[in-house]
Amino acid sequence: MELIQGKVHRILSDDLVGLRHQRFIVDVLKGSREGKTILVAHNIDVAPRVPDLEIGEFITVKGDYEWNELGGLIHWTHKDPDQQREGGWVEWRGERYE
Q1: 75: closest CA among 86, 64, 59?
Q2: Residue 33 belongs to what domain range?
Q3: Model pTM greater than 0.90?
Q4: CB atoms within 10 A of CB 97
Q5: Structural domains of the chain, count
């Protein structure tokens, strides 16, 4: 699991193929990926959507990081429905979405 903190750089359309994901890009300000821009794919079939998210807002994300040529992505930002592994979350405006 990776923990990042940063500012929302861009909000993308939801990925509606298969499991649905809310997608946004974060400029990482704190964490081992500091200085990188990372896509967050937050599964909204398992966890609540982060409502009214806006560009420039500070956000904290915990999930699985996967490298790619664009900087990487973080997914698994929710509890494990099968309770077999550690879950992740998105924290924003004092609320945790998991």
Answers
A1: 64
A2: 2-97
A3: yes
A4: 19
A5: 1
**Cα(90)–Cα(19) distance, integer angstroms:** 18
**Which two three-digit tokens encode residue 21?**
């994901």
We report the CATH number of the domain holding residue 79 as 2.40.50.140
Q: Return d(Cα 72, Cα 12) in angstroms, integer.
A: 15
Q: What is the DSSP-derived secondary structure letter of residue 85?
A: S
More confident residue, 8 or 35: 8
Q: Which two tokens stand for residue 7?
A: 């500012």
Distance CA 71, CA 75 (A): 14
